[in-house]
Amino acid sequence: MMSRAMNKLLLEGKTGVIFGVANKRSIAWAIAQSLANEGMRLAFTYQGDRLKESVEALAGGLKGSLILPCDVTSDEEINAVFAAVDKEFGKLEAVVHSVAFAPREDLETDFINTSRAGFKTAHDISAYSLVAISKAALPLMEKAGGGSILALTYLGASRAVEGYNVMGVAKASLEASVRYLAANLGPKNVRVNAISAGPVNTLAARGIKGFTGMLHHHAEKAPMRRNVELEEIANAGLFLVSPMGSGITGEVMFVDCGYNIVGL
Ligand code: NAD
């Protein structure tokens, strides 16, 4: 049995990198806070100067955090993040991948009209980036004796959800990448999991056509008759990233008030 010494935080002395904070509603920010509350020191990345101020304003409030630019379509920028983390932290126990994008036109059109370019972009940013980030993180996790990588996904990966379109196909690729990475990195004591979150009103979610209707539908049909709270996703993230989740890898865990189990 794991015992927890009085006053010892779960993640004291541990370090992590968070990809995907845009603002205070971001799932990445909720997870970051739950990790920081348990003592983890964090590095944050922001996508382009547009988001720099917002990420600095949030992350600046956490002691010892690093703030670095990173567009995940660039291997150079990904490598620069981990070089800076190596210099400052010297090792790494956690990575949170909370990044997704598909061009608006491809989300708004019927799925059959998905463009080749939109398909590529959605997969590059939302799925391949997990592989590239894991590769760059691995040497630092090996230095720590192991680590945990967490991605964010949605039910549209395995079911056809109206309006989710090419993003659902990219999430299927992300979930398969979680399994292949978990199989590949397990021997190095690196775990890779995903949380499949119910809908939450964030910047990215507003790009989905009919998102407000989706929120109402979920709240009506989910066994718990409500939508999931950001804090609940963050708590599940803490569980999977921390030693509490030490026996779990390659898993997609639903945090959706039970919506995914319902038929009619
Ligand atoms: P968000 O808009 O707060 O976060 C999305 C992030 O992706 C932003 O920080 C954005 O800067 C980043 N991003 C996009 N393109 C990028 C690029 N090229 N390089 C680097 N970063 C890039 O929205 P969110 O809802 O918190 O999304 C986080 C994750 O959660 C996504 O993977 C999303 O698909 C997933 N998710 C969201 C919901 C929901 O309902 N909000 C449900 C299930 C899963």
Question: Could you write a compact summary of the structure shown?
Answer:
This protein is 43% helix and 14% strand. The protein has eight helices and seven strands, in the order E-H-E-H-E-H-E-H-H-E-H-E-H-H-E.
Largest β-sheet summary: 7 strands, parallel
What CATH calls the topology is: Rossmann fold
Oligomer: single chain
Number of strands: 7
Structural class: alpha/beta
Mean pLDDT: 96
Query: Within the largest sheet, what's the order of strands?
Result: 3-2-1-4-5-6-7
How much is the radius of gyration in Å?
18 Å
CATH class: Alpha Beta
Using the alpha-carbon principal axes, give the shape: globular
Order of helices and strands: EHEHEHEHHEHEHHE
Q: Ligands bound here?
A: nicotinamide-adenine-dinucleotide
Helix content: 40-55%
